[in-house]
Structures are given as C-alpha cells and as structure tokens.
Design brief:
Elements: E1 2-4, E2 11-13, H1 23-76, E3 84-89, H2 92-102, H3 108-114, E4 119-125, H4 128-139, E5 145-151, E6 164-173, E7 178-189, H5 190-205, H6 212-240
Parallel strand pairs: 4-7
Antiparallel strand pairs: 1-2, 3-4, 5-6, 6-7
Helix pairs in contact: 5-6
Length: 244
C-alpha cells in the first residue's frame, strides 16, 4: 500500500504480511501499523523542523544586517534610524492554516513556493525618512534581492493602514548547499505601528465585524498619525537641517 506524507510529499510503501486469522496475528499487524504511523509522524516533524530552520537562519541574517546599519548610523548621525525590531517565524500550525487559506498543496516544496511570509521582520522607525533609508540600504547590498515592494505609506490602504512592505531574498549557507530564502519586511514609523496595533486588537475583539462608527474613528486616527509623522519630520528638519 502506498501513502503520501502530507507535509513532505514523499511516497512510502507499507508491506502488509498476511498471517493466520488469529487474534495474535491481528494484534501484531495493528501494532506494526501503529509503529509505522508513529515513525512517519516523527519523520514528518523532522522534515518540517529542517524546513523552518532555513527561515530562522534567514531572519538571523537580515537581523544582523539591520543591526549593523543601526549601529553604524548611530555613530555617524544625531539619532538612531531604528526604534525597535521584532521577528516572527510562522509556527507549524500557522503554516498549515495559511496553506489551507490560499489553497496551497500540503507539501514543503509548495510551502516554499507559495508562502512568502514564513519569516517576518518588523522594523519600527522614528521618522518616515528612516523607513525609506532602511529599504535603500538593504536593497544596495549585493546579496539582497528585493522581490516585491508594497508602499502603503505612499498609497495607504482603504482602512488607513500605512507601512512599507518588502519581500527580499537572502542566501542562507547550509552545510551542503546555499539556498535563497524569502523574508517579509514591514518597515513603519512609531505612529504607524501604534495605529496598526490598536486597529488589530479592535478587529480581533469584534471578530472582523467592526461597527461603522469605530471604523470611521480608526480612519480619522490614521490621518492624525500621518499628520503627526509629517509634523515631527518638519520640526526635526527645522532644528537639525535637511535629512540625508
């Protein structure tokens, strides 16, 4: 009998030995099948862990790049371009949920092809100019491939959401090969991050069905946050001169 591993996609053959139809034989057969299922589950878990590991390494690679940019900039200028950095690696459950949501086959190969936010990094900056500076600095590095840019600062979403989203690929050097791994980057200001956090908590509380009055207030708050970013940038420019 041939089975397909739902995670790794591998085929395996289970050989069933026919024995005399006694209770001992049936017991041995059932025990053997249980052992095979458990072994298959263990192998599945190992394959998935190995798959996720490369994304963890990609997060480490990009985090190091960001840390270097941050430290070097602080030594050369009057402020840090980065307030804080958060990283996220999708859990196995989140991976499966995302795959089912987008209709992705339940194989590791398909996950790698169709799910590009397995590894995620959020960079929060003081000023809008810092957001674009970080993107430019990363894009200028020879081992960073910018695959996709979604600029929700220049063109906010209908609900008021503002952020700069990038999909980049970086090389991860394993013991036997190098692999290009995608990482989702979200770069935003403190004001944008605060608004997004509150908006997310409200939508979570209302299970996605937010009253119109609250949606309108969130839209107004998003415009206020954008005005705050513009005002703070102008004040800094008046005090310290043009930015970069």
């Amino acid at each position: 009998m041939t089975t397909v591993d739902p995670i790794s996609g591998r085929h395996s053959t289970l050989a069933t030995v026919r024995s005399a139809p006694d209770s001992a034989g049936e017991h041995n057969l059932i025990t053997g099948l249980v052992d095979l299922v458990e072994a298959s589950s263990d192998e599945m878990a190992r394959e998935l862990a190995r798959f996720r590991m490369r994304y963890k390494f990609a997060i480490d690679e990009v985090s190091t790049k960001i840390a270097i940019l941050r430290e070097e900039f602080e030594h050369a200028h009057d402020h840090s371009p980065i307030e804080h950095v958060r990283t996220r690696l999708k859990s196995p459950d989140s991976l499966l949920a995302k795959a089912r949501k987008i209709g992705c086959p339940l194989t590791l190969e398909a996950f790698g092809q169709h799910i590009r936010d397995i590894a995620g990094i959020r960079v929060v900056c003081p000023f809008v100019s810092d957001v674009y500076w970080i993107m430019e600095m990363l894009a200028s590095q020879s081992d960073v491939d910018v695959v996709e840019v979604e600029d929700y600062i220049a063109e906010p979403k209908a609900n008021g959401y503002r952020s700069l989203h990038l999909i980049i690929k970086v090389p991860v050097y394993l013991s036997d090969r190098a692999v290009e791994v995608p990482v989702e980057l979200q770069i935003r200001t403190i004001a944008m991050d605060f608004w997004a956090s509150v908006e997310h908590s409200i939508y979570y509380k209302y299970d996605g069905t937010v009253p119109t009055t609250l949606r309108d207030e969130l839209g107004a708050a998003a415009r206020t946050a954008a005005d705050l970013d513009a005002t703070m940038a102008r004040l800094r420019s008046e005090v310290h001169g043009p930015v970069r």
